[in-house]
Write a structure and sequence with these properties.
The protein has 293 residues and is an alpha/beta fold. Helices cover 40% and strands 22% of the residues. The chain has helices at 16-20, 48-56, 68-79, 96-110, 125-140, 145-155, 169-173, 179-187, 211-225, 244-257, 272-278, and strands at 5-9, 26-27, 30-33, 36-39, 62-63, 84-88, 116-120, 159-165, 190-196, 202-209, 236-240, 266-269, 282-288. It has a 6-stranded mixed sheet with strand order 10-9-8-13-11-12, with helices on both faces. The chain has a 4-stranded parallel sheet with strand order 2-1-6-7, sandwiched between helices. A 3-stranded antiparallel sheet has the order 4-3-5, covered by helices on one side. Helix 1 links the parallel strand 1 and strand 2 (26-27). Helix 3 crosses helix 4 and helix 5 packs antiparallel against helix 6. The longest helix is centred in the middle third of the chain and has 16 residues, at 125-140. The protein is globular and about 55 Å long.
Length: 293
């Protein structure tokens, strides 16, 4: 039995079953399209992602941060059972952390005998999932809430997010790239290379022509930044938005170059909240390395 409850939010971009099976309660985001609100499903419904991509052809769904009251309801149920370590979706991507902190302040007054620790993940998508997964490993080893919180606070700076996109029109439609730049890039088959910086914000820092070159470029960056370089023996996660072929090619490239990886390179779907902004065609690679700059 764990001595505390580890919880997270649905933007970890892992299937709900993977998280739920590890006894990690989830607070769900939602998106709105066509005047209707939908839960960030985490693949509980096998058809939900397919329906989402059909909706995406018509409009860009709107997403919003979690508010204080959602956190209050969530924390209240957990604190009835024990101490809580909650890892929050990165503040570089959303302002939800503000709502979490406001709610936590009230909950600590209501449950003075409990610990409620918040960690701003500074991560996104399955990189956020990797941080939660690592915290769950330590919890299952019997580490205390303070020990796991300390690890997460340090590890969040070392989870690298390297990704590329082969379809930039959604970056343009969501305002993350100018229309002219996206048009030129699509015509010339240019893939921007992006990452998360130390503050958890997206930075487009280079570009290559074609997805094969994009995959090769990310392999070089992984060799440069991963712990022990090509001898990296930690976990690797990949996520993608409706482009499983590219994700599979990326996995093959990783397995060919990095032969000491801990376990299988795991592939996940980018969930509906983040895909609302990236659209289809994005592939991201996550691994532990030096501190993100």
């Amino acid at each position: 039995m764990s001595s505390f409850i580890l919880s997270c939010e649905s933007t970890v971009d892992m299937p709900f079953e993977s998280v739920n099976s590890r006894d990690i309660p989830v607070l769900f985001y939602s998106y709105t399209a066509g005047g209707k609100e939908y839960a960030d499903d985490m693949e509980r419904d096998p058809e939900a992602l397919a329906r989402f991509y059909e909706l995406l052809k018509q409009e860009i769904p709107s997403t919003s941060q979690l508010n204080e009251f959602q956190y209050i309801d969530f924390f209240d149920e957990l604190l009835k059972k024990g101490d809580v370590l909650h890892i929050v979706f990165g503040s570089g991507m959303t302002k939800s952390m503000q709502g979490a902190e406001a709610a936590a302040s009230k909950m600590r007054e209501k449950y003075p005998e409990r610990k409620l620790i918040l960690i701003d993940s500074l991560c996104s998508s399955s990189g956020y999932g990797m941080l939660v997964d690592g915290a769950a490993d330590l919890r299952d080893e019997g580490k205390s809430i303070d020990e796991v919180a300390k690890w997460a606070d340090e590890a969040r700076h070392r989870i690298h997010h390297q990704f590329f996109s082969t379809d930039l029109k959604y970056f343009r439609r969501s305002g993350r790239m100018s229309g002219a730049a996206a048009t030129v890039a699509n015509i010339l088959n240019i893939c921007p290379i992006l990452k998360l910086d130390a503050a958890g914000k997206i930075v487009a820092y280079d570009k290559v022509r074609g997805k094969k070159n994009a995959i090769a470029y990310i392999m070089d960056k992984m060799a440069e930044h991963a712990v022990d370089g090509e001898n990296y023996s930690g976990k690797v996660f990949i996520c993608h938005s409706d482009t499983i072929e590219d994700a599979t090619e990326t996995k093959k490239a990783i397995e060919k170059r990095f032969k000491k990886i801990n376990g299988e390179v795991r592939i996940f779907n980018i969930g509906t909240i983040i895909a609302s902004h990236t659209g289809p065609g994005t592939v991201a690679v996550f691994f532990f390395g030096d501190e993100r700059d």
